[in-house]
Amino acid sequence: MATRRDKAKELMDIVGALYEAAFDNALWPQLARHVSRVFDSPSACIQAIATPAAQPLLLTRTDNIHDAAMESYRQYYWQRDVWVNAANELGRPGVLLGTDMISSSDLENSEFWQDWSRGLEQYHIVGAMFATGGGGSGAVGVHRPRNARGFDEADRHMLGLLLPHMRNALRLQRELADAEAARCAALDGLERARTAIVVVARDGRVVFANRIAEQLLAEGDGVAMVGHRLVARHDATSRHLARLVDEVASLTIGQGEPASHGFLIPRLNRMPLTAMAAPFPVARSLAGCAGRGAILLLKDPETPGAAGDALREIFGLTRAEASLTAALAQGDSLETFAAAGGVTMNTARTHLKRVFEKTGTCRQGQLISLILRSSAYLAARGGHVAPHPNG
Hints:
The chain has 391 residues and is α+β, with helices and mostly antiparallel strands. The chain has helices at residues 4-23, 31-38, 67-75, 82-90, 98-101, 104-108, 111-115, 153-192, 211-219, 235-249, 284-287, 308-315, 319-329, 334-341, 345-359, 364-372, 375-379; strands at 43-49, 57-61, 96-97, 124-133, 136-144, 195-201, 206-209, 223-226, 229-232, 261-267, 270-282, 291-299. The protein has a five-stranded antiparallel beta sheet with strand order 2-1-5-4-3, sandwiched between helices. It has a five-stranded antiparallel beta sheet with strand order 7-6-12-11-10. Strands 8-9 form a two-stranded antiparallel sheet.
């Protein structure tokens, strides 16, 4: 039998494992086995619940809760879980024993016991519901079969020692997931707007580049990465860029004017890149030392414009009308579009008239402004839309 010192060590190990799992979802599955072992029980699980009406997400479970049982729980029994429902109705903070939640006779007469938990040898329980912030909650349950001894006050106390750490771990996991979702959404939005993002330390070291920026840096026309540092094609531009990064990095975010600087980066026989630099904190893990840096937003004016399929869906345009609209938004003239598509100017003007009617515009400038501000412009990911002379 485990001594009190052994139990204390096992509890501390579980606390450490909880916080490790908050940072790495792959570590959750083994936690249930640790929890069940410290309680001398064959069964345990921990769930995360986004909202009171949401289906719970099982983070960890012991082997007795097999895949088929979990599938039936997700499909049906989670709404009939007498322990979770009783804990919610009681609204009592802290750890509950099974007898606090439901009588033995009511449990044995329940559909949940008869058709689900009995087959998993879950009869006695010590568990808790706890808030994790943002309207979410968590649930932990440790179970024993009917022929085993029930849980007592010592078990309640032991789970109570773990409970604050379970709450903190699930809250931390949710906050990290929210932060990651926000980061991914921001990056995806900028990439859809075809914006290259480069984060540099004050000394010019590149500490982050999104996919579009990596493509620009690999091309080496305008900007490149040499020895992990951001440089421009021309020496004069490189020196200007280095001074600008140093100047911007010295600014305090949210204070000082101007908060950002715009400039052009020349390219060989191509339109220049437009760039905006703003102060940005650089973490120790990225730059080797915590400090200030700069974020550069680079736009290539030669990237494809609005997507033809999106224009057709949003504005109800034909393929020919969408091709014309995309060409105008890209900077082509009506004459250029007609020549490239092999159509007459009269046909091109007819297409343009119909586009005006469908988009509620009346001038080319107004049409282009609408397209550049529409979601059709964000949908473009490939190359130019080929002209289609026929609707």
